[in-house]
Amino acid sequence: MLSAKSLFQEILDDDESFRLFCSIAAGGESQGGWENGRIAALVPPAERDLAPKISRHGADEDKHGRIFNALMKKRGLEPVPVPSDTDYTMLLERHGIGLPHEKLKGDRPLTVQDIVVYLAHSRVTEQRASEQMELLRRHFADHPDLGRAVRMISHDEDNHLAYCHEELLRFAAAGHGRAIQRTLRECALAEIRIYRDVSLAVMAHMGRVLGWPRAKSALLAAGIHAVYAYERLGGWRRMVSLRMPERRDALGGPATTAPEFA
Description:
The chain is mostly helical.
């Protein structure tokens, strides 16, 4: 029976597919760490109190990248180049979602509107990350090799999502509500399309590595298209709602360190 657990177990059991999976994940997390680090450095004076939380967010993403690299190292594997069609973070930036990298590479302080865009983009992408890690935690929380990593990253992604909710609600109360809702909607509709395309690309690469028969690849592609159809018809709305989280000030403390996997 084809299930999320059996599919990931197949990827996990093969060194080449596991290496590709971890390389893609590590690359995206490291890129997110760089973006958050630059945003923290360019926060406008009016929002300097937010800088430590953005830095914590970036430090967490860097930590996740190190965790995925450590999981490869434990199996004696080296990272492989990330195929461009699987680079979720760069594809989002290329389609105008979030803050452009050219702006982040400069020295000019960001505006409050830029911070609103950053938080709205993060609220959408962290929803996706939280859901993906919850799925892995459900099936692999007790796995002897992956368990600790899955639990830690899942906890962090939930914290990131809570932080985005809380800060966006603060900005909405300060008069940015319409801009927030408009940006959230734009980000969500673009994200579900890019997530579909990246998912199709990842499954195509995995299929070649693992030698999947054409029927299996077609079934997985159909499932990905079905998820997109659901999200396009209304599932995207879960990415744009805002509510005060149970975890208040979720990024208010220092970042936790990555565990050792050697």
